[in-house]
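Suppose a colleague, Dr. K., hands you the sequence of a protein chain of 153 amino acids and asks what its three-dimensional shape might be. Before reaching for any lab equipment, you can write down a predicted structure in token form. Begin with the sequence itself:
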Amino acid sequence: MKQLTLIFIITCSTLTIAPATASAHRVSLFSWHEQGALKGEAWLGADTPVVNAEVFIIDPVTADTLRRTRTSSDGSFSFPNPPAIAMEIIVLAGHGHRASFSSLPAQAPDKDPNPGSPKPGPAVRLPIGIATGIAAIAAFFFLLHRWKQRHAR
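The predicted structure, expressed as tokens, is then:
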């Protein structure tokens, strides 16, 4: 019975810890043209903004750095009056984490191809979060039940 309890605790711990650890290593980069500026956001995983990371606009033909800035505390960045060429946007998030995005020149002002569409944001990992929460609650009540059984004698 002790082995079964130990296996259950290890399994619940793995389910609780593993998704958060694995999702923190992927850098997501979203970029769009808005009101004469190139704007964007960078995220680690689903809900952690990349703070104070270097952001570059690179000319893909010459590999020259055209502009550079840093992300803000909410992971956003902006380049006013971006060059009217195809470009590559690169975010260096530290510790070897990097994301890049190839962007075309902005369209004519005020001609949004998808008017009323929401701006891109971080991916939602709701099913994994729900499963992790349920596993943590089940583990808590299982351990509480076992503790009551041992102390009832």
